[in-house]
Amino acid sequence: MSNHVYKSLELTGSSKTSIEDAVQTAIAKAHETVRNIQWFTVTETRGHVVDGKVAHWQVTVKIGFTLE
Amino acid sequence: MSNHVYKSLELTGSSKTSIEDAVQTAIAKAHETVRNIQWFTVTETRGHVVDGKVAHWQVTVKIGFTLE
Amino acid sequence: MSNHVYKSLELTGSSKTSIEDAVQTAIAKAHETVRNIQWFTVTETRGHVVDGKVAHWQVTVKIGFTLE
Amino acid sequence: MSNHVYKSLELTGSSKTSIEDAVQTAIAKAHETVRNIQWFTVTETRGHVVDGKVAHWQVTVKIGFTLE
Amino acid sequence: MSNHVYKSLELTGSSKTSIEDAVQTAIAKAHETVRNIQWFTVTETRGHVVDGKVAHWQVTVKIGFTLE
Amino acid sequence: MSNHVYKSLELTGSSKTSIEDAVQTAIAKAHETVRNIQWFTVTETRGHVVDGKVAHWQVTVKIGFTLE
Amino acid sequence: MSNHVYKSLELTGSSKTSIEDAVQTAIAKAHETVRNIQWFTVTETRGHVVDGKVAHWQVTVKIGFTLE
Amino acid sequence: MSNHVYKSLELTGSSKTSIEDAVQTAIAKAHETVRNIQWFTVTETRGHVVDGKVAHWQVTVKIGFTLE
Amino acid sequence: MSNHVYKSLELTGSSKTSIEDAVQTAIAKAHETVRNIQWFTVTETRGHVVDGKVAHWQVTVKIGFTLE
Amino acid sequence: MSNHVYKSLELTGSSKTSIEDAVQTAIAKAHETVRNIQWFTVTETRGHVVDGKVAHWQVTVKIGFTLE
Amino acid sequence: MSNHVYKSLELTGSSKTSIEDAVQTAIAKAHETVRNIQWFTVTETRGHVVDGKVAHWQVTVKIGFTLE
Amino acid sequence: MSNHVYKSLELTGSSKTSIEDAVQTAIAKAHETVRNIQWFTVTETRGHVVDGKVAHWQVTVKIGFTLE
């Protein structure tokens, strides 16, 4: 109960629309296989450009979850 | 007039909707007690996750204002 | 064909509405004079405050493009 | 209830005995004037040396608390 | 035999008593599923505060082990 | 007597003449309201340019003082 | 199809001959169990010394691959 | 009018006399070909030594200007 | 004669064979249009992977040259 | 009397028991050959693991002393 | 002639008057025992404060010299 | 036997041919006067350019050795 241990994974989510959506994409993917996700931290925000416009936002997050 | 001095505070705003809204929340709170806020810099973007979705965006900003 | 060289520029775009729009503003400006923009990385997010509200988002990006 | 704002202060606590005690000294001092302290992060660990022995541990912490 | 490959995981251990105990908690948890742990590096030291006292030390470590 | 606690503030001083003068401006301002200032660390040196000349040096310092 | 998610692992490869070979050793090991490796970034270059000569190059890389 | 874009260049100025003079040398050089320089940030301060004395101060600055 | 000014560019060279060759590729490209290149600093080493092997080394360098 | 010069050395002390003891081990070793040690700063905390337990704490410190 | 090796020392010089004078103090001290000093880099600028005024500038430099 | 202390030196080796050779040059030089060198870490990779080609690779390493 008391001495929890957390593990963190680093994922990069992409989105055509926004930074927030790219983060949500990464977390949703992690949620498919990992239970108990608690928090994330953004570590890099970048993207691809096509014809002078942002085609994809690519946001890297550290995702932390409780180990059971 | 000439030799201004600026002070900076570090606050973390939270929001259920977006990074921009979390920043605005922090600045609005500082505005209650501090006059002459001039600028901010984002120093960390993180958040809480519930059931595989972002529940709160938590954005830390340094907020700079003129000392009178 | 094989040994490409990329150059990166550092620009700061501003926007009254969002971080994403400030990035797009910077890339659109670079696109006026540079061909083959491929990617960007956000290196700083800051802004101006007027009357306790964010007046402008100012986002600095490194923009990478292929040298021909 | 929903959109909390946190403020962080930077203090340096000192102790003749341990790193943990220096942190606790800083937090106890902050607790005299600040309510609702939630967390801390260690940002620097240093100390003074006298006659080849550690005389004081000096640990700098960021201390975060809820603004009401 | 010669060209080893090491993998590193990032875990956060918690403890009510000390930084060293929080590190040991994280390593013991990793040891349940990973063989051949060789080293660790502390990457962040933080904690929770309740009533002006450190309630939990939370120490993040990179843990390195040999891949077989 | 033994277990001192220090607090640090972040100020930015400006000056038309030199980096040293900008630092002194910031410390003098802090001295108006804070007793027992002990040390400072320069964390950023920047400035404004008008007509191709430095109009103001803007130097950010962390200023440390003893809490009584 | 559009919103890819990438995961990154951190491995350290070693080699008696060169930095490039140490990187290739790490990637080859990851390739045994992970499909779709796309890129790597070198995060640390170090090594062991025996009798005043480099005995092993040890290069740490973040390796990124597409999650399916 | 509203959505400005700024570009930054990195120059290193040198001077036999002072850090401030080296910065001014770099800005004056940029001013020969670039209009609308607004600000600079010092990113590195170094120098050459001859016979145990500083022969040249070499200060690297990022120089920001408005793109028209 | 005395107060030189240096400018730095950031390029990324690629190579199928080695880190050194990728650096040389970037410098040779810069040399086509810039005279008086004096030095470079490696700021990032990364690469593309195909079928578990390094397909391209991509090395980013800051290249410094004298402004005349 | 007035214009002191300090030199700093980087040492790594090890200990089977605690971070504090590893720091003290490094300082005691420096004290054998260096007079006037004044301060230290912790720059890295790591350790060796044997059988899922911390076998040695290895703490790197910068040690500063007055040059006479 | 061809394959030089340079060593760097870290010293902190102090001065009552300026940053430049503190750097020169450190280099002059190193020059008493080290030949062939070539360059320095400023790594930290701080100082002591007495009665709301800078009493000493303390500037840390890495000093590089050729090993013979 | 148990509580080792390690010291680290910072050297820069140069080479006309490769990064690896520059590292080896620095270590061989240290080996002339220091026993028990155990490890190194690369902290900077740079070089001189002549006529658009790399004339010298200059690689800075921290070199660690056991104090007896």
From TrEMBL, chains A, B, C, D, E, F, G, H, I, J, K, L:
Pfam families found in the cross-reference section: Dodecin
Domain of life: Bacteria
InterPro entries the record matches: Dodecin, Dodecin-like, Dodecin-like_sf, Dodecin_bact
NCBIfam families (UniProt xref): DodecBact
UniProt xrefs under PANTHER family: CALCIUM DODECIN
Protein name: Dodecin domain-containing protein
Organism: Acidovorax cavernicola
